[in-house]
Amino acid sequence: MGLCSQSCGPTARTLLSGHSGLMLKNSMGFRKFAVSIGYWHDPYIQHFVRLSKERKAPEINRGYFARVHGVSQLIKAFLQKTECHCQILNLGAGMDTTFWRLKDEDLLPSKYFEVDFPMIVTRKLHSIKYKPFLLQPIIELHSEDTLQIDGHLLDSKRYAIIGADLRDLPDLEEKLKKCNMNPQLPTLLITECVLVYMTPEQSANLLKWAANSFETAMFINYEQVNMDDRFGQIMIENLRRRQCDLAGVETCKSLESQKERLLSNGWETASAVNMMEVYSRLPQAEASRIESLEFLDEMELLEQLMKHYCLCWASKGGSELGLKEITY
Ligand SMILES: C[S@@+](CC[C@H](N)C(=O)[O-])C[C@H]1O[C@@H](n2cnc3c(N)ncnc32)[C@H](O)[C@@H]1O
């Protein structure tokens, strides 16, 4: 059956309806499910998110695997180029567990910052405070005796989590500086499924602020692309029906529009690939391993889905470090 051409069959429609939310509202539950059936190793996620009983479609899990793999490859390339003498700002981090996983791999930057709305940070902090498995790695790296934790802030030597609105840049900057963000250090900024929630003007301001704040920097963005076609339109409709409005969808028209936003807001180089490209460039052994985990009925749906998400990265300065050579 042709998926999402003019006539989307009911199965495809139902699946697509699930997928539209997949990368958005409840994304951590989907990640946790993929982890639970062996797509990748993440012992931390279960401490942040409850496992839903509902089984997720294999294309969702493969999509998540490609996303986690792609983002992680770019993060590691940056850490390698800077020899970890750098900082990472994960903006709209939600329940992301990258900090803990990098620590396990001995790949921590000088400092790792997370930002999200105060309400989300309060939830995440609650888990961190009461679960030694999450708190211990932070304490272990913190040489001073008092760790600063309040309702929506934790600041320690190597990890900080800050409650702030990414659309209020003076407030964001002030809070980051209070936590010793260092504008002189090579800086990696990450937004995964975040910019699409902001208007094009708000995301442009955030990108411009980032480019102006750091001399040497890289930006990684993961979100929708090709949203102008029929499949994209159905994704948007499904989300609207659930009161989820993608204010920034206009910038998600094409790989070109994604790159253009970066280049016109102070970034010197920009690259973008759709997730099908990321998937098709997975190391053969990894692709075979995950493909043997679950039977996939409709390859066409996987392809359609993956062509509607992209991985973009940009750089500014850092030629001497080789930041401009980083590629997926
Ligand atoms: C779909 S979730 C993605 C979470 C995480 N990046 C991931 O990939 O798992 C989007 C996150 O961005 C956050 N977010 C969206 N707009 C934001 C804003 N203006 N300020 C701070 N956080 C924001 C949301 O609260 C949410 O945690």
UniProtKB/TrEMBL annotation:
GO terms for biological process: methylation; regulation of signal transduction. Keywords: Acetylation, Methyltransferase, S-adenosyl-L-methionine, Transferase. It catalyses: [phosphatase 2A protein]-C-terminal L-leucine + S-adenosyl-L-methionine = [phosphatase 2A protein]-C-terminal L-leucine methyl ester + S-adenosyl-L-homocysteine. Its EC number is 2.1.1.233. The keyword S-adenosyl-L-methionine applies. GO terms for cellular component: cytosol. Belongs to the methyltransferase superfamily. LCMT family. This is Leucine carboxyl methyltransferase 1. It comes from Panthera pardus (Leopard). The gene is LCMT1.
